[in-house]
Amino acid sequence: MKRLISPRCVVLLAFAALAGGCALPRRAEVAEVLDEIDRARLGEHLRELCSLGPRPIEDERATARAVAWLRGELEALGLSVGEEDVPVTVPGSTLTAELRPIEGGDGTSQVRYPGFYARYGARVMESIARGLRAEGREVQGFSLATEGPPTRVTAPNLLVEFEGTSGRAGVLELSAHYDSVPGAPGGSDDGSGVAALLEIARALARRPPPRTVRLCFFAGEEAGLLGSAVHVAHLLERGEDETLLGLLDLDSVGWCRHEPNTQDAPARIPLVTWMPSTGDFVAVIGDWSSGGLGNAFEDAADTYIPELPYYSANRIGGWFADARRSDHARYWDAGIPAILLTDTGDFRSDAYHRPEDTPEGVDLEFLEGVTRATLAATLEIAR
Ligand SMILES: [Zn+2]
How many CB atoms lie within 10 A of CB 93? Predict the structure, then answer.
């Protein structure tokens, strides 16, 4: 049993009881499709994407490299790939690190970076400073200067659709984001989610689901959930939110720790939420109206991947600001059911948003488990 059964969790159990949570019969045809998911191939996808380097949405060349690779992978499966343009404003500014040499380091006094780096917060700046220190230069401070007008660039969301074979209405969406913050190769965040979706694409290309499934590779998640904002606006425009069964968002599903005291929590509230202190689970985060979707994922995980621990923050996620930090939040805001599946990012790993977020830091066994559970849930929900 993977849900924490402690006195603290009676409320969660009460939720589960309210919402059903009956055991799901194991279907041989689903189990067979799950075997398409290959751990070694997950690792290959991850290494290939990360080898292209950091890919913030403002960096057009980096984005083009990532998109060409992703498109190539999908087209090699015989899939046709749709695009949605995601615009972003790039400030016409420069970020300057003022330096002094330490112990025989070189005498350079300044290093300049694109001004948009500043948008990405303290971890990115700290990583720059650490990198320079390793080269024998100490950062005295950063300054940001405007040097020209802002420019506008666009990056695509890539969309792939598997048309349902049953003719029944309803579309299930799955998402991951392919961008990363400056300086970070984005191994777990979110190369892991992209790799998972590519393996799921391979499986669905062979065995189309009964109802339509759409995979969304979002742009610009790190710059403020930009790709999902564009996509959800399109869904609402087309009235497609009505037929949407929901979204399963995979953001950072690669870090796993088996030692005790390896897991922090945004909040631990007795009788409401008590995240385990060993970081070996995937968190299932849903808001109140996404409870059915969260139950469906957890039931599928129980039935098909019983060895995968998960922590249920199903239904209660909407109460915590930290639970809104990925693309699923755009769906919540539009009233569309969505759950986030995550290793919890910086609550589990110091590599979060840093150059250390490499493919080597990703636990492929864990990633495989999450990918299989997501595919199982997909096939059960899109029945
Ligand atoms: Zn992310």
Answer: 17
Q: How far is the CA of 13 from the centre of ligand 1 (A)?
A: 29
Q: Which two tokens stand for residue 216?
A: 């969304």
* Residues ≥6 apart with Cβ < 8 Å to 14: none
Assigned token pair, 46: 């991850």
| 330/324 Cα distance (integer angstroms) | 9
Distance 19 CA to ligand 1 centre (A): 29
Considering the chain, tell me which residue range(s) the CATH 3.40.630.10 domain(s) occupy.
7-89+152-381
* Ligand 1 center to 186 CA (angstroms): 8
* Cα Rg of the chain, angstroms: 21
Per-residue pLDDT of 314-358, as tens digits, reads 888 877 778 889 999 999 999 999 999 999 999 999 999 999 999
Q: Report the CATH number of the 7-89+152-381 domain.
A: 3.40.630.10
**What single letter denotes the amino acid at residue 314?**
N
Q: Where are the beta strands (DSSP E) in 190-349?
A: 212-218, 244-250, 282-286, 310-313, 338-342
The C-alpha atoms of residue 236 and residue 115 are separated, in whole angstroms, by 34
Contact 53, 66 (CB under 8 A): no
Question: Which sign does the torsion angle of CA 58, 62, 65, 70 carry?
Answer: negative
285 Cα: distance to centroid of ligand 1 (angstroms): 14
Instruction: Please tell me the distance between residue 224's alpha carbon and the centre of ligand 1 in angstroms.
Output: 10
Main-chain dihedrals φ then ψ at residue 162, nearest 5 degrees: -110, 105
Whole-model pTM?
0.92
Report how far ligand 1's centroid is from the alpha carbon of 345 (Å). 8
Of 282, 277, 279, 305, the residue nearest 294 (C-alpha): 282
